[in-house]
Every structure is written in C-alpha cells, then in structure tokens.
Write a structure and sequence with these properties.
The protein is an alpha/beta fold. It is 35% helix and 24% strand. It has ten helices and 13 strands. It has a five-stranded mixed beta sheet with strand order 2-1-3-10-4, with helices on both faces. Strand 6 (124-127), helix 5 (130-139) and strand 7 form a beta-alpha-beta unit. The termini are far apart. The mean pLDDT is 90.
C-alpha cells in the first residue's frame, strides 16, 4: 500500500458492497487523509448459481479469488462474511480484525406474512443451507425445502415472484441492507442454531502487513472475536464445510463464554445440540470440547454417513 491508499477486495453483490462501504466509511472517518478504494472481485461462488452449494465445494467458494488477490498484492485487505470463511486460511493471510457482531440469527421472510408454524402444509421454503434445511425439517417435516441460490436481492425477487412461499436468510445481511421490515420471524438459538461466524465480518490481510493492521486495529471487537474463535474451533474440529449441516453460536453470559454446537442429519431426523461454557481465554479449547461432546453423543455416525455418501461409499 502506498500514498495512504487502502484497497479493499470485495465481492460484487449488493450486500458485499454495502458491508465493504461501511468499513470504508469507518476507516476514512478514523484516519483523515486515508483514501479507501473498493475493488470488485468475482468469486467462484458468484459464477456458479444453478447448483446447490453443497455440490460445488466448501466455504472457500466465496473467498478464494479475493485471497489470491491479497497474496499477489492486488488488494490490501478483504471484507468477508465470517460464515463464508474456511476454518483454515492460506499461509501468509490472517483474519486480523473482527468488528462488533450484527444479529447472528436467521430470519424467515414469507409472502403471506405467516410465521413458520402458520405456513400451509407443504409450503415451499427456499434456502441454500443444509444446516437451515435440517432444522426446518425438524420443526416442520411437511415443508418442501428447495434450493435457493443468488444474491440477497435475487432471493427476495424470487420470493416476490411466487417461486417460494417463504425463504430463510441471515438476519445480519437484512439489517445491514436496511430491510428489517421484510422479516416475518426470527429463528434463533438455542432452538435454531446459526452458521459458524454468522453475523460477524472478518477483515483479512497479509500477516506481515503491519501498516494495514495499524489502520484496521481500532475496528476490532474482542468479545466478538473470542466468540467467533470458539465457533471456528468447533468447525475445524468437526472438519465441516458447506456440505455438512453444522452450526455454532457463542456468546458471553455471566462472565463466561457459552457455546452451542449443532450437527444434523441431512433429513433433519437426527439433530445433536450441546452447550458448554468456559472462561474467555479458553475459547479455542471450548470449541474443541463441544465438538468432541457432539461426536461422542452420536454426531460422528451422522458425519461419517454424510462423508461416505459424498465419497460414493
């Protein structure tokens, strides 16, 4: 980075641009004289829209090309939704800063204005998430849950055009877009466990870039970072990605970090949820412990079945 210009790599979706613009405006207010530029990068996940996420790869679908640009010096930092970031980062890169988390819950948007219990028998629900699908089927086995890909505005349009009776999206994105009034019902923990890192942004940079780290450091929110660390430790221990219904949500309660982890079968007939607490300094160990307890409770068999099906076993 030269001449007080900081280049942000971002996806081109309306939500991604909104999030990156929020970070740009915050940085330029914090550091008078700093100019922040947005560089739009199209990722694999943005190009392949007609195939379910679980069939085209893992979480790296929405970050790989941006990370490549970071590594080759084309951009100085990236703004990611943490739920899209793989548990293991490329060598030389770091999620150096995590700002304060938005709402981590999922949100139901229905055409009729009816909540999940009020939807008619066999209602068509759109989502691209296996985690959401499994939990929806546990609540309402009769629902016709169908794949829904595309950016936030595309998904909203498909709902309005009648392709679905309702759709499920992350509440955080709707809030950042100013679309709160479109939400029919919030789906939150412990009954409905969100994705790992949902609601949190991650600012990725090169490990060795001390200048960029200095500019970003005031945006870091320690409680959010510790919660996300516990969740990502759970994900890493379970070796999960988009192909597996895994959820996790950590928050501080009474001075301790509380983590709820979830593993589900694809049909939602088996769902394992476990909640544990630990001191903040043990965030990573807490994630490992919840993962181990889930495996011991029966999640190992569910995960083995899913991975076996993927391998054609």
């Amino acid at each position: 980075m030269t001449d007080q210009i900081l280049r942000i790599g971002t996806r081109g979706s309306l939500l991604a641009l909104t999030q990156s613009t929020l970070i740009r405006e915050t940085l330029e207010k914090l550091w008078p004289g700093l100019r922040v530029e947005l560089h739009v990068i199209k990722t694999t996940g943005d190009k392949i829209l007609d195939v379910p996420l679980a069939k085209v790869g893992g979480k790296g679908l929405f970050v790989k090309e941006i990370e490549d640009a970071l590594l080759d010096g084309s951009v100085d930092m990236a703004v990611h939704s943490m739920k899209d970031v793989p548990a293991v980062l490329p060598e030389g890169l770091d999620i150096g800063v995590i700002p304060r988390r938005e709402d981590a819950r999922d949100a139901l948007l229905s055409r009729s204005g009816k909540d999940l219990q009020g939807l008619p028998q066999g209602a068509r629900i759109g989502t691209s998430s296996l985690r959401r699908t499994a939990q929806l089927k546990q609540w309402r086995p009769d629902l016709d849950v169908r794949n829904l890909r595309g950016n936030l505005d595309t998904r909203w349009r498909k709902l309005q055009e009648g392709e679905y009776d309702a759709i499920v999206l992350a509440a955080a994105g709707l809030h950042r877009m100013g679309w709160q009034d479109r939400i029919t019902m919030y789906l939150g923990p412990p009954a409905f466990v969100p994705a790992i890192g949902q609601g949190a942004l991650g600012l990725e940079l090169r490990v060795a870039d001390k200048t960029v780290r200095r500019f970003l450091s005031p945006l870091h929110h320690m409680e959010t970072a510790l919660a996300v660390e516990a969740e990502r430790s759970l994900l890493k221990e379970l070796e999960g990605g988009c192909q597996v219904p895994i959820g996790g949500y950590a928050r501080f309660r009474d001075g301790l970090l509380e983590l709820t982890g979830l593993v589900a079968s694809l049909d939602g007939r088996e769902i394992f949820r476990i909640t544990r607490t630990a001191p903040a300094e043990e965030a990573r160990d807490l994630g490992r412990r919840v993962a181990w307890d889930l495996l011991q409770a029966g999640a190992r068999r569910v995960l083995d079945d899913i991975y076996g099906e993927e391998a054609g076993v």
